[in-house]
Design goal:
Length: about 150
Amino acid sequence: MTPTRHDRLTIGELAARSGLATSALRYYEELGLIHAERTAGGQRRYQRQMLRRVAFVRAAQRVGLSLEEVRDTLGRLPADRSPNAAEWSAVATTWQARIDRQIAELFTLREHLTGCIGCGCLSQGSCALYNPRDVLGADGPGARKLLPPAPDRP
Ligand code: FES
């Protein structure tokens, strides 16, 4: 069946339906998260399935995925048609481990934050709020976060 004009959304329509700014949609397109066809006049036209992709991107970001991770995930879905429920479900289940890890980290953070309430020191060495599990220590001693790496000199 040949797609009709009404099977495609303009960028304004996609923005209105998705709740995103047109600039964000253009950025998503630049990253390869969504795709548009072009009219003879060069205007973008989006398949309706892009609404679901945009919703997926936003949900993935809420889970904590970077846009690069989202792009990799979307790359496992068919590009030429709307994914079926099983395909969406298979992709979404890959988030389960990440969500579980985030929940565990939040519980740990909550337990360690008691000392931070009313403190405000943001100590690199002992503050669970500023440097949870001393992740900055892996970069080496000193104020690693404040100093840019030394430039290579010939
Ligand atoms: S703010 Fe002082 S220990 Fe976190």
